[in-house]
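Q: Given only this backbone (210 positions), what sequence would you predict?
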């Protein structure tokens, strides 16, 4: 029990800091290339930011590389995400390159390398008491749900995976998830739910798919 408590706190945070710092240094050339590709394809801004729910539902600003047009250039204001997703953006999402800036979120303490994915703030009030337990830990760049179907599993199952992770969080499990994430990214499985850029929106308990 003492080891678990230690890893949940200082141990996990220390590993996050070390790996995120190394990751930012190692990924710097790839991040620069990605930024240039986004700029050439879509112009400014290169980064996409959005408010998401962090640990205990605390809002924070999530960083990603932009993958969609901004809705201008003659596009309808209600133009769908699928229509706004560019060819470069689709490629970035398939390889998860758009997620690289979230290493900065990890350094800041908003996120962990591994944990439930951070979702929209307006979802928080829709969670059941059990689903809300996913907020007991920092959200992650990858997580148990992401290596078990990613965006192709329904919301109910996705939240069950998230809560299972909260209950079984450990150093060994995090290493397993990181290893499985590499395999998932290379296979490009589960990037989007059929008919959606990612998943349909969550509208409450019992909803299938984001």
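A: Predicted residues:
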């Amino acid at each position: 029990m003492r080891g678990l408590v230690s890893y949940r706190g200082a141990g996990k945070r220390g590993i996050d800091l070390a790996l995120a710092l190394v990751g930012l240094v190692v990924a710097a050339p790839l991040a620069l290339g990605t930024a240039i590709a986004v700029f050439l394809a879509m112009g400014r801004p290169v980064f996409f930011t959005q408010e998401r729910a962090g640990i205990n539902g605390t809002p924070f600003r999530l960083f990603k590389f932009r993958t969609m047009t901004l809705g201008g250039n003659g596009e309808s204001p209600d133009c769908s995400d699928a229509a706004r997703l560019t060819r470069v953006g689709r490629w970035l999402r398939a390889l998860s390159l758009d997620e690289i800036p979230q290493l900065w979120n990890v350094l800041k303490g908003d996120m962990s390398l591994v944990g439930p994915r951070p979702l929209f703030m307006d979802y928080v009030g829709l969670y059941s008491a059990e689903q809300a337990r996913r907020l007991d830990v920092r959200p992650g760049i990858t997580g148990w749900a992401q290596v078990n179907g990613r965006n192709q599993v329904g919301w109910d199952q996705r939240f069950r995976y998230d809560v299972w992770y909260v209950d079984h969080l450990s150093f060994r499990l995090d290493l397993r998830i990181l290893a499985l994430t590499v395999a998932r990214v290379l296979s490009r499985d589960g990037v989007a739910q059929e008919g959606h850029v990612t998943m349909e929106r969550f509208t409450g308990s019992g909803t299938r798919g984001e």
